[in-house]
Amino acid sequence: MGLNFRSLDRRRFLRGSGVALALPLFGSLLPSAAFGEPTPNNPKRLGCFYFPDGVPMPLPEDPSYQDWAWFPHGDGKEFTFTKCMQPLEPLKSELTILSGFSHPRSRDVHGHNNADQFLTAAPTGGGDREYANTISLDQEYVKYVGDQTRIASLVMSTDGGTGTARGTHTISFDRNGRPIPAEHRPKQIFDMLFVKRNGDSARRLALSQSALDEMLADANTLKKSLSTHDRHRLDEYLDSVRQAEIKVDKAKQWLNVPLPTVDGDQFNLELTTDQPREYLQTMFDLIYLAFKTDSTRVATYQIGRENGVGRSDHLARAVGFNLAHQLSHETKNPDGWKNFGIYCQFLNEEFGRFVGKLKETPEPAGTGSMLDNTLLLMGSASSAFHLSRNYPLILAGGKQMGVKHGQYINHAGMNFQGGPWLGKGEPWQDKAKGVDIPLSNLFATMLQRLGTGADSFADSTGTIAEI
């Protein structure tokens, strides 16, 4: 027996072609996309990577400072890496290290609350503050290039899904500040990139387009009878439906385009974090392949969730420790800074391996290397123990976009907070020793180098001339 759609609550469903679409309480989670002009010759790609729990920040008088501090020693072109950063030494001319940058509206909250705002600069806050997020840097760039590839953006994390407010598993947020679910299973990522779907895709897409057209008409009729508050909520929904239309049209466009041919036998696609080093390498390799085959030009990967929750905390087992988050709490113990530094060294080694592969690969349909045409950001939203200031940041690639490298932009200088946690007050509760630069200034600079023409992003106050 068929459903009587006319008997359904019109405030809960939209109708079209015998299909009912629920009006979600929290809006659509569809990623935003918009049409931009195609880039001639060289593509311009963006990759953003997040690691949790901050970095080793021993004070200068600590014997561990020389070897295991995360930030380099020196300034400008004259700087040296510590053992923590040593894996990046061969790539020194291809990257820039930055200190003294953070998001102004998040500097006085606990560091574990901050992954949500790393790419957005939104005041997601902590405690009793109302949670609200905004569009992330990667999705801002998707507006310009999302239609030029089969997949608008590749959103990945070690833990998968979206997580919770202030405990996010994704660093990508759409134009309405909704979290975009991240994929954590290598097999699913590989299939999405390279395995052809079943033969009735075109038929299902055609039906989807017809349903969307009729549901938009029904929504416009419904809008006339709604309150001002409900109209605002419906406007958000209509915007999501319009973006869905774009996705349907785009999917049709790509239906008959041959998929890239990639040999999946070279990967162990059933990996889990029980094999942490191989898992991390495979996730980076999948992004490399997605970029190389021009399946997407935008990727994000949240390497770990804050607060030591989830499978990502097991990554420390790659270097002989049990849980990653625990290392940040044990720096007061003998070899505590060294142990934490060895884990960060592991992350830098695998990130460096990925950067090196891009450098070694000529641009498939352009000039220079893939790295020259790819802008990469690696960082965390805390530095010292739970401190939401002086983010540890690495910017790599993009030389053919005019990005200048081989430098340490040491805005923090020696005026930084650090030291082990001794079980009393935490650095994030202390008065700041200096004033950070808005991280959005870096984001605005990146968007300009990516060719978007953007003058600003979020709360930026300018750009960074050194880059």
From TrEMBL:
Spans annotated as Disordered: 160-181
UniProt KW keywords: Signal
Signal peptide from the UniProt entry: 1-36
UniProt cross-references to Pfam families, sorted A to Z: HXXSHH (PF07586)
Designated name of the protein: DUF1552 domain-containing protein
Organism annotation: Blastopirellula marina
